[in-house]
Structures are given as C-alpha cells and as structure tokens.
Write a structure and sequence with these properties.
By secondary structure, this protein is α+β, with helices and mostly antiparallel strands. Helix content is 62%, strand content 10%. It contains ten helices and four strands; from the N terminus they run βββαβααααααααα. Strands 3-2-1-4 form a four-stranded antiparallel beta sheet.
C-alpha cells in the first residue's frame, strides 16, 4: 500500500503517481468510474487489476465514438485507443471485434478515400501519401488507385487548371505556366497529367513543354 502523490489529467488520460514512484495511466472514463485523490492510500497493483477487468467495454465505447465521425483505418484506431491510455490486451480485443464485424476495413477505406479525394481535385500521388500516413498498406493503396479513372483525373486537373490560370499573376506566360504546373504537382498530379491538363485548359499544344517548367 502506498499514498497518492499527484493526479494529473492530460488529453483523456489521468496520470496517477504514488510514493514509490509508480505512475499509472488511467483512461479518463475508467477514472470517472473509480476516482482517486491526492493523499489517499492506494494499491497500484490492485487498481491495475481492476482496470484490466473493466477497460474492455470502455475501450469499445471509445472506439465506437471515434468511428461515429467517419470511417477509420486500423492504425488510426489503434493510435486513438493507445492515446486514451488503454492497455494492449484491451486494444487487441477491440480491434479483433471491429475487424470481425466489418467496422474496420482498410481496403474499403482506401477505395472510399481515393474516390472522395479525387473529387476534391487531388492527384494519385497525393492520395497515396495521405493513405500511407493513415497506415494503409502499399498493396491496398495500389489497389484503390487502380480504380481511379485516369480520364476523370485529367478532367479534374484541367478544371482546376482553368481556375488557377484565371487567378495567376505572373511576369509572362512562361512564368504563369510554371506556377500553375507547380500547383498541380503539389496537389499530387504527375508531370504528364499536369502538362496535359494545362494544354487542355489553355488550348495549347503540349509539345513545347520543358520538364523544368514544373
């Protein structure tokens, strides 16, 4: 038995420190169910054992809340639950159930994300980068991008290009073209798609482009 020295709350997690320098991370929802106060006698091992028996339903409820806003990847869900202070055994149980019941599906997520981001005039390279940051495997990203229509990519890029040309201020035509092409590349379009989009939007022959224009 020890005595609690401090109770600190930080982003959904409560850190409880006792006299023997033991520090326990307690998910906020569990702490509300069994709160602790500075100066109280405390048995960290007994409290941890109680947490182990109670945290799964709390972790599952947190996962459901996290999914309510939008679909999530497996990595996003694991990161969220770890950040909330749940232990690896509880996280593993939650993940197994969500995967089994189809609430987590990285392949489906990648397909939906690629479609939605293309509609926001983003190129395949940018979409791939975003999915990688969310923890989707390269294999699943490639499968999702294979379903993105190249003709639609070019149409979206050309429409964006028209808007960029209309508001781009530059010293001369070459400088304007360089700025527009750079903007398209930043949005994830390949050099080839950017060049074709500019030619379509500007009504020019793409044969005179230099790669350094991008």
């Amino acid at each position: 038995m020890s005595r609690i020295l401090s109770v600190r709350r930080q982003r959904g997690v409560v850190y409880v420190e006792c006299e023997d320098e033991t520090v326990l991370r307690v998910p906020a929802s569990l702490f509300r169910e069994r709160p602790l106060r500075e100066g109280e006698p405390w048995d960290p091992e007994a409290y941890a054992a109680w947490m182990a028996g109670r945290e799964y339903p709390h972790a599952l409820a947190r996962a459901v809340d996290y999914l309510a806003a939008r679909p999530r990847t497996e990595r996003e869900m694991e990161t969220c639950l770890r950040r909330c202070g749940y232990t690896e055994p509880a996280i593993a149980r939650v993940m197994e159930r969500l995967l089994r019941e189809g609430y987590l599906n990285d392949a489906q997520f990648a397909d939906l994300w690629a479609q939605a981001r293309q509609e926001h005039a983003l190129g395949k390279r940018r979409i791939a980068q975003e999915l990688l940051r969310k923890g989707v495997s390269r294999e699943r990203i490639d499968a999702a991008l294979a379903q993105v229509d190249d003709a639609e990519q070019l149409r979206q890029a050309a429409a964006l290009c028209e808007r960029l040309i209309a508001r781009t201020r530059a010293r001369d035509e070459r400088d304007a073209r360089r700025k527009v092409l750079a903007a398209l590349v930043r949005r994830g379009y390949s050099w080839d798609v950017a060049r074709q989009a500019y030619s379509r939007a500007a009504g020019t022959d793409d044969g005179g482009f230099d790669e350094w224009d991008g």
